[in-house]
Amino acid sequence: xxxxxxxxxxxxxxxxxCAELLPELVALDRWGYPILAPGPIPxxxxxxxxxxxxxxPTLALLIEETRxxxx
Length: 71
Hints:
By secondary structure, the chain is of the alpha+beta class. It contains two helices and four strands. The chain is 21% helix and 25% strand. The longest helix is centred in the last third of the chain and has 10 residues. The radius of gyration is 12 Å and the shape is globular. The relative contact order is 0.35.
C-alpha cells in the first residue's frame, strides 16, 4: 500500500498551513496555493502528513491510499 498527498483545488483557499506543517512535501505557488511533491509519502513523514491533513482549515488536503495489485 502506498499513500500520496492530494489537494482539492475547489476547496483550497491558499491559506498555506500545509506548507508550514509539511515543508518537505508541500511548497506554495506565488498565490499561496500548494504544490505537492510527486510520489508517495515517505514513511518517516507519514505522521506529519496526517497532521497536516487534519489541520487543513478548509479540509482540502487529503491522503489517498492505493493498494498495489499482486500478480
